[in-house]
Write a structure and sequence with these properties.
11 helices; alpha+beta; about 475 residues; 4 domains; five-stranded mixed beta sheet
């Protein structure tokens, strides 16, 4: 609550400097400092100088000088960073280079807000030149912008050629909110988020090359919610292996509602769920090891957050961009051929038993071009763990779905640094030290069959048998030592 003497705007200043003694006063300053008015009694009470509220327009005038004033007295926060530099880089970069980098970053991450007219980015250099950020500062966003512009226009779920846009959905279940934390908790919602997909044309490729930014490239999915800021760009090149090159935009939460319309309860629920999953830098949606998210929800959290990056997203993309597979041309929908290709995790090998692994992406396997492929991502539930390991085996299944023998693992590639690989006959063990809390891995079996034609028929006649990924984890704890 603001008192009579506390008239907005309010000016707060903070510094992070080396420890030093003030030249005119008997004070020592250590690193963090606060800008405010010199009132010894208030400094003693607060432990810092109190901030300024407007009085006689002094704060308004200073804010205007510092270019952090609020236009038209709008509510919000304006931030000015004095003496900005990127740690570890050039202490004195050229203003023109900094301006270019700022404009590129602004367009790359905020093009949804810019395209809707909600954001205008201007960069002024010391010589007085002012540049307005536009698509030329990051040409690779143009295919994404074209895709996003069709959110409320396109109705088809099929691509009709280069430059065309299709619309699909991705299922998500928002768990019920925790009534012990929130006064009016939301129930569970089963809903969908929107996925827009654009088939690339030659001009798109030229714009990617001009941007020279690996995020602004083919086969990427830009993800956003109601804040109209791109959370991240997810590489889904594997989906285009048997289909068209594309870009896609995953539109979630309140961003699914037309400008000016009231979001539905489901859209609001998704918005809150994803917002709470974001780290401080707002560059990911994290379900695993997210105590804040677990505090606010009851139910499946990790699986639903991971679905917007993993299997469900890939399935929705594949249904649009991948060509229909005819006999002899490729691999059919494996759910119709080998529906039990999922993984089995035996992760109870710590002392005392009980599950010990938190899988952000549940290990699973699928058949592709004569080999069984596999993938997984996860780490120990207990963050206070010692060295740990994951052993991967591909089981060959009999008709009664029991394991008969193992299919040798031919290769495994840890997608995380610092992981050792040990071959144990047909299995592979990934050794991980205690400093690593999560690993991501992918690999394949030895070739099961050469020269297959119709994969469905090969399964039916027994030329290929079904398989299951068996993943076990062993984790050392303090009790083990």
């Amino acid at each position: 609550m603001i008192s009579v003497d506390e008239e907005p705007p309010r000016l707060i200043g903070r510094s992070i400097l080396p420890a030093h003694d003030h030249e005119d006063a008997n004070r020592t300053y250590t690193n963090h400092g606060w800008f405010g008015y010199a009132d010894d009694s208030e400094i003693d009470r607060l432990g810092r100088p109190p901030s300024f509220w407007d009085g006689g327009n002094a704060v308004s005038e200073l804010a205007d000088t510092l270019q952090v004033d609020r236009p038209s007295n709008e509510t919000g926060t304006s931030i000015g960073v004095v003496g900005f530099r990127i740690p570890g880089e050039d202490m004195h970069p050229e203003p023109e280079d900094l301006s270019e980098q700022f404009r590129h970053a602004a367009v790359k991450h905020f093009w949804p807000a810019i395209s809707r007219g909600d954001l205008d980015v201007r960069v002024r250099t010391p010589d007085g030149d002012e540049e307005v950020a536009n698509w030329d500062d990051a040409p690779g966003v143009r295919p994404f912008v074209e895709c996003y512009s069709q959110l409320f226009e396109v109705e088809t779920d099929e691509l009709e050629g280069p430059g065309s846009v299709a619309k699909a959905t991705v299922d998500i279940t928002v768990p019920e909110e925790n009534e012990g934390v929130l006064d009016a908790p939301d129930p569970e919602y089963e809903t969908t988020v929107d996925l827009l997909i654009r088939q690339l044309n030659p001009t798109d490729t030229e714009e990617f090359d001009e941007s020279d930014d690996r995020d602004l490239s083919r086969n990427r999915v830009a993800r956003l919610r109601g804040a109209q800021m791109i959370v991240d760009y997810v590489d889904k090149s594997s989906v285009a292996d048997r289909g068209d090159d594309f870009v896609a935009v995953l539109v979630c939460g309140e961003a699914q509602s037309p400008n000016g319309d009231t979001p539905t309860p489901e859209q609001r629920a998704v918005e809150k769920f994803l917002k709470r999953s974001e780290p401080t830098q707002h560059d990911d949606w994290q379900g695993s090891k997210n105590d804040y998210l677990k505090k606010h929800y009851r139910g499946t959290i990790v699986k639903e957050i991971a679905a917007l990056e993993g299997e469900r997203l890939e399935r929705a993309l594949a249904e649009v961009v991948q060509e229909d597979v005819e006999s002899g041309d490729g691999v059919p929908d494996m759910d119709d051929v080998a529906p039990i290709m999922g993984g089995r995790t035996n992760d109870d090998e710590s002392k005392g038993g009980g599950p010990v692994m938190d899988w952000e992406e549940e290990p699973g396997t699928w058949f592709d071009d004569g080999n069984w492929m596999f993938y997984g991502k996860g780490g120990p539930i207990d963050e206070d763990h010692g060295p740990w390991s994951v052993t991967i085996t591909i089981d060959r299944l009999d008709v009664d779905e029991s394991s008969s023998d193992s299919i040798p693992v031919q290769s495994v590639k840890p997608l995380s640094p610092g992981v050792g690989i040990v071959q144990n006959g047909d299995s592979v063990t990934l050794d991980v030290d205690e400093s690593i809390h999560e690993i991501e891995f992918e690999g394949s079996s030895e070739k099961v069959v050469d020269g297959i034609g119709d994969v469905r028929e090969a399964f039916e006649i027994g030329a290929i048998t079904e398989a299951r990924l068996d993943v076990s984890a062993e984790i050392e704890t303090e009790d083990d030592s």
